[in-house]
């Protein structure tokens, strides 16, 4: 996979120290892509780097610090010279009844899951525009397609991500930057395990309407992200790709 014609690609994966982000970073590193993982917890980042090996670099950074995102990208460019791939994976969830969610809690989810994606994508797009090439892959959720109870803020944020993906693709694709989105269904991660294992009725409902009969794995998402970031998807932009084992069409 050669996103650029000179030397190997450089990718950024936010939230790359765990879950879907770690699986994606592993997929990239294993395919000789220099991969920069970003997250708040430096200890977790360092542990992930040990697992991922020499192709992995990390930057401790809180993406809620919107004002300093331009400085972060400048630092990455100063050290690595370019950015070929951006994976907007970092996100948070909150399970709480709609009428109990405070304005502050709702805004916290929106800031992390939407505003940070916007700010980071804007700054990276400036770099990619100069390069005349690049691929951005956002991570949404099938929650944006469903009416799932007790996740109002998360649902709103992921619906915004899918709309942003299309708007970004229309503006950036003429500049050589493809923008796509992967929408995971029910994936076996630490975050989903807590939610489903404490709610057997919901877990059974999930599995009963999933034609493939199992939860997905982080590797399933990593494979889809890698495809959309690669030259194999060179004529694909503005697409929302569900990776859900058929859950969306299950009965």
UniProtKB/TrEMBL annotation:
What species is this protein from?
Answer: Echinicola rosea
Task: Cite the SUPFAM superfamilies for this sequence.
Answer: NAD(P)-binding Rossmann-fold domains
Q: List, alphabetically, the PROSITE patterns matched.
A: ADH_SHORT
Name the UniProt record assigns to this protein:
3-oxoacyl-ACP reductase
Its family? Belongs to the short-chain dehydrogenases/reductases (SDR) family.
The UniProt entry, under NCBIfam families, shows: PRK07231.1 (NF005559), PRK12826.1-2 (NF009466)
Q: Which residues form a coiled coil?
A: none
UniProt keyword list: Oxidoreductase
* Lineage: superkingdom: Bacteria
């Amino acid at each position: 996979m050669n996103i650029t014609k000179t030397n190997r690609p450089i990718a950024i994966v936010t939230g790359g120290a765990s879950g879907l982000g770690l699986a994606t970073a592993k997929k990239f590193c294993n395919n000789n892509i220099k991969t920069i993982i970003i997250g708040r917890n430096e200890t977790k980042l360092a542990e992930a780097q040990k697992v991922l090996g020499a192709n992995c670099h990390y930057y401790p950074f809180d993406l809620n610090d919107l004002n300093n995102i331009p400085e972060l990208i400048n630092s990455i460019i100063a050290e690595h010279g370019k950015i070929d791939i951006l994976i907007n994976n970092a996100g948070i969830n909150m399970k709480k009844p709609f009428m109990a969610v405070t304005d502050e809690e709702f805004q916290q989810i929106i800031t992390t899951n939407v505003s940070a994606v916007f700010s980071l994508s804007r700054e990276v797009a400036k770099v990619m525009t100069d390069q005349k090439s690049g691929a951005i892959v956002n991570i949404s959720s099938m929650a944006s397609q469903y009416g799932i109870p007790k996740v109002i803020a998360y649902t709103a944020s992921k619906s915004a991500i899918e709309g942003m993906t299309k708007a970004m693709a229309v503006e950036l694709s003429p500049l050589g930057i493809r923008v796509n989105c992967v929408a995971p269904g029910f994936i076996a991660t630490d975050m989903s395990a807590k939610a489903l294992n404490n709610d057997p009725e919901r877990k059974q409902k999930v599995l009963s309407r999933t034609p493939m009969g199992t939860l997905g794995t982080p590797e399933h998402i990593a494979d889809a992200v890698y495809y959309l970031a690669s030259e194999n998807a060179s004529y694909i932009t503005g697409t929302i790709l569900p990776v859900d084992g058929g859950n969306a069409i299950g009965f």
